[in-house]
Amino acid sequence: MQIYLVGGAVRDALMARELGLPAPAQADRDWVVVGATPEAMAAEGYEPVGRDFPVFLHPQTREEHALARTERKTAPGYHGFAFHAAPEVTLEQDLARRDLTINAMAVAAEDAAHPESAPLIDPWGGLADLRARTLRHVTEAFAEDPVRILRLARFRARWPGFGIAPETEALMRAMVERGEVDHLVPERVWQELSRGLMEARPGRMVETLRDCGALPRLLPASVRAQVDALPLSLPGETDAHPLFTGAPLPVRWAWLVAGLDGAAQQALGAHWRVPNALQELALLAQRERADWPAPEALDAAEALRRLQRCDALRKPARCRELLQLIDGEALGDADGGATVRRSTRRLERALQALMTFDSAAAVREAQADGAQGEQIGERLHTARLKHLLRCDIWND
């Protein structure tokens, strides 16, 4: 039984050494076991967990260890595979089924603590491609799994300086033409796209899918023309603006679809099964952008009206995402968004002030004075407005 560390952990360690790229703080480690049977693994205390092929949890670390295996295409799409795991399957054969050469490198388990300096097992030229910043498929088996197109697009978003090998680009286009991408279910598409949106350059992901012809096949027909006209980068993305690097997924999704009308946003979100919270933020931003106030018009009364319209007092986190979203979209303004930021900062300070206001006490006071029904709401509104007027946030 021989155990090897493979895949992303080896790749990322070498990227840090060769390219100076930061390694993930806590990367998942993938292990392959050569020359073993399920019975032998169980005898060593490994716990079986795999459903489709033999995967085991290490008795101490609880990390997954998979028996070396080969795979054979049996049906269209990404579920249509038969796997063969046996002691005679070699490490090189196991690595051959992986997507990209940079993901098909390994080191022995005894050297896994420092993979960047360990003797490297690299039968498919992964290190050379890593040094050349090239994403290249390992074998023609890449074409059997359409998810690999999504993964490659996501890797381009993570490492924007990497290019795609010409033969891999041609293979991706051929996969699209054969209809392989048509077998991807929306949930799987969104899983990869949502991860790609959180990478350094999400626009590279969109660009890659568009260039190989996959993007139109992943969209409902009603939105293809609008999506094709969208820009290939999100606000602040190209220069790693701090506003962009700190943006959560709901904000990035809303940035991506900002150029779509409401109906198109809803159609795309429904098609990809985008979580409702993300879709709601994008639609809220579209409404607010159409009626955004100049800073001088944003007095206490207008700030309170707008925050209430956005349901900010019940959903302050969403409101802060909305303000971040609007800030980002304003980066393309003539003044770099300075005017819009004055308004968003005022609203942000007004929200913070209202979050410290004791609304329950104001309600009790109104009730003690005999107020009922709508009168209580009016008294609460007046009390909140007076509280805002006392705050020093209007003379920036």
Overview of the molecule:
The mean pLDDT is 93. The protein has 396 residues and is α+β, with helices and mostly antiparallel strands. A hairpin with a 6-residue loop joins strand 3 and strand 4 (55-57). Helix content is 48%, strand content 9%. GO terms for molecular function: ATP binding; CCA tRNA nucleotidyltransferase activity; hydrolase activity; metal ion binding; RNA binding.
Q: What is the CATH homology-level superfamily of the largest domain?
A: cca-adding enzyme, domain 2
State the helix count.
19
Q: What is the name of the CATH topology of the largest domain?
A: cca-adding enzyme, domain 2
CATH class of the largest domain: Mainly Alpha
Q: Give average pLDDT, whole number.
A: 93
Tell me the domain tally: 3
Cofactor: Mg(2+)
GO molecular function: ATP binding; CCA tRNA nucleotidyltransferase activity; hydrolase activity; metal ion binding; RNA binding
Pfam families: PolyA_pol, PolyA_pol_RNAbd
Keywords: ATP-binding, Hydrolase, Magnesium, Metal-binding, Nucleotide-binding, Nucleotidyltransferase, RNA repair, RNA-binding, Transferase, tRNA processing
